[in-house]
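Good morning C.,

I know you're traveling, so I'll keep this short. The sequence:
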Amino acid sequence: MIKNLRKENRVLFDLSKCENFSDIRQLTDKQFRLLGLKSVAYIRPILTDEGESGYAICAADGSLLAVVEEVQEALAAILQNDMIPVSVQ
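The tokens, ready to paste straight into the viewer:
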């Protein structure tokens, strides 16, 4: 079961007001946190409130977008939403 949180995240992060980045070397802290927010997602293993294992799909800034049961579901959800899955070390 996929729990979609993207709509709730739009309330917290108004992406329509994101600034354009003209020089990546001159980014403010706010601009750096927003970099990739619309297009990058990562997956991390979690334990749900019920104690079951699952996978969290997170935006570039770490905000939770969805929770799924299998890592393959997470990758598929990211790609279906035209986002790029990235590896976070």
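Safe travels,
E.
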